[in-house]
Structure formats: structure tokens, C-alpha cells
Design brief:
The chain is mainly alpha-helical. The protein has twelve helices and two strands. The chain has two domains: 56 residues; 239 residues, MetI-like (MetI-like fold, Orthogonal Bundle).
């Protein structure tokens, strides 16, 4: 065999070795990034716990969670977190009630029924809406939504959980639409063709085949929308009234956990009890979001197992 005939084999061997080395490096980077995310998550939890130790020792977590009064500057201070937790959950529930059906319906229309020009324009508008700062949404809510809610329900003030939830829902809609549309777009076209071959209409194909096949991605979009709503600060500060009392409905003023931290952190003594309590509020918020996402992952994994069967 001549040296010229060995050259292509050597080149192929060289490419194979280089490809394997590159794959090994990429696998190592992905492995490191995965563990780095876990380390960062644990570091955040440890940081919150470390700064919450004083409040957990002096006030007690059970006492704070069951407390109905939030008067941190009284003597002695009253650090009841129940109104803050309920207020956050109320606002988030209103936001999801608006964002989930509207967002998923819009994603289905854009992915399955709209034409090329409409789809491109719609996606551009959605990306723009996602980039609008939350304070701008808050200003629009102050100027438009607060008077509308006040007049519609005959309230003394339009700064309610309903007002904040509607604005947060509008802010979450672009996230739900974008992720859901990507999930629907990723469904193989063969599934749609097979459904059409069986005599299903386009609408029947959508709700019997396409949406169930993309359900994991749609569910992920809902969870991201929930994260956007429960973690928002500026809009709820401007729209919910910031009344730290136990609410009994969405037409009352509320104060959220994020709003409490943002409003009071700049005025507390660093290292003091009030300072530590605010970190406890952050720890409770962290635990709630972690628990929701963990439950969502378990549900999603069970759903994927059922589909694999």
C-alpha cells in the first residue's frame, strides 16, 4: 500500500480523534455546569438561612408563619408572615388565571392556524412585550386599571390584589406564549399528517394530537409564568395597596413578600432582628417556589412516563 493511499485514512482517523476529544470536553463542561447550578442553588439557600438565624431563634418560624399581624417597628415587633404569604398567593393566582388560558390559546393560534406574515408579526410583538420594564406596566396600571377596578366594583380604592394580579398576568402572557409556541412548533409534522390521514380536522388534530404531544413544554411555560408572577416586585408595590393585613378576597389591598422586602430592606438596621426577619421572608419565598417547581417536575415526569407507554 502506497503512502498516498494511507493519507485519507490518517485524515479520517485524525478527525475521529478530534471529534471524540471535542465531545469529551463538551460532556465535561455540561457536567460541570450542571453541578455548578446545584452548588449555586445550595449557596443561595445557605445564605438565606445564615441571615435568618437570629429571627428563627428569637421569633420562631412557626410563630411567624402563623402570625396574623405585621408590625415590625412596634415594641415588641410583630412579624406575622401569614398576610404576606396569602397576599402573594392571591396575586399570583389572579395572574395565572389570566395568563394561562390566554397565553396557551394565543400560542395554539400562532403555531397552528396563523399565516406566515401574521406569525412573524405576532412573535415580534410578543418579544417586545416581554422586554417592556415592569415599572412601565405598573404606570399603565396606575393610570388605567386602578380607576377601572375602583369604578367597576364600587370600591374606595382600586389598589387591590385583583389589580396587581391582572397586571402580573399581562406581564406573564409573553412568557407563556413564547415557550408554548416553541413546544408546539417542535411537535413532528408526521404526527399532524397521520392525524389528518385518519380523517381528523385541523382543530381536532390540534387538541387531540398536537397539544397533548407538546404538553410538557406547555407545562414548563406555565411554571415560568408562575415564577415571573410570584417573583415580581415593582408592579405589586405600585398596584396592590401594600396593606399588611390578612385579605379575605381579591378586591382587598394586600402586601406581597417581595413587596415587603423591597419596601423595608433599605430602612432596617443591618444585622438587627427586622433585618433577619426580611431574610426569613425571602427564605419562605424561596421554599415556596422550590416546592412548586419540585412538584411540577414530579408531575411532568409522571406525565412523560405515561406518554412513553
Amino acid at each position: 500500500m502506497t503512502p498516498a493511499s494511507l493519507t485519507p485514512n490518517r485524515r479520517r482517523l485524525g478527525r475521529t480523534v478530534t471529534t471524540r476529544a471535542a465531545e469529551a470536553v463538551l460532556r465535561a463542561l455540561i457536567y460541570i455546569c450542571g453541578w455548578l447550578c446545584i452548588v449555586i442553588l445550595l449557596a443561595i439557600a445557605a445564605f438565606l438561612v445564615y441571615n435568618s438565624v437570629r429571627s428563627l431563634r428569637e421569633a420562631g418560624l412557626t410563630t411567624m408563619l402563623s402570625g396574623m399581624q405585621w408590625y415590625p417597628t412596634s415594641d415588641p415587633g410583630r412579624f406575622g408572615l401569614a398576610p404576606l404569604v396569602v397576599g402573594s398567593l392571591l396575586v399570583t393566582a389572579v395572574a395565572l388565571a389570566l395568563a394561562v388560558p390566554v397565553g396557551i390559546a394565543a400560542a395554539v393560534y400562532i403555531s397552528e392556524f396563523s399565516g406566515g406574515a401574521v406569525k412573524e408579526v405576532s412573535k415580534s410583538v410578543i418579544e417586545f412585550l416581554a422586554a417592556v420594564p415592569s415599572v412601565v406596566y405598573g404606570l399603565i396600571g396606575v393610570a388605567v386599571l386602578i380607576p377601572a377596578v375602583k369604578d367597576s366594583f364600587g370600591l374606595s380604592s382600586g389598589m387591590t390584589a385583583l389589580t396587581g394580579g391582572i397586571v402580573l398576568g399581562i406581564m406573564s402572557i409573553p412568557t407563556v406564549i413564547s415557550i408554548s409556541e416553541d413546544a408546539l412548533h417542535a411537535v413532528p409534522v408526521e404526527l399532524r399528517q397521520g392525524s389528518a390521514a385518519l380523517g381528523n380536522t385541523r382543530w381536532q388534530t390540534t387538541y387531540k394530537v398536537t397539544v397533548p404531544a407538546a404538553s410538557s413544554g406547555i407545562f414548563a411555560s406555565v411554571m415560568l409564568g408562575l415564577g415571573r408572577a410570584i417573583g415580581e416586585t415593582m408592579a405589586v408595590l405600585m398596584l396592590t395597596g401594600n396593606a399588611a393585613v390578612m385579605p379575605h378576597g381579591v378586591l382587598e389591598s394586600v402586601r406581597t413578600m417581595t413587596g415587603t422586602i423591597a419596601a423595608e430592606m433599605g430602612e432596617v438596621v443591618q444585622g438587627g432582628l427586622h433585618y433577619s426577619v426580611l431574610f426569613t421572608v425571602g427564605l419562605v419565598l424561596f421554599a415556596i417556589t422550590f416546592g412548586i417547581n419540585l412538584a411540577a417536575d414530579l408531575v411532568l415526569e409522571r406525565q412523560q412516563r405515561r406518554w412513553r407507554r
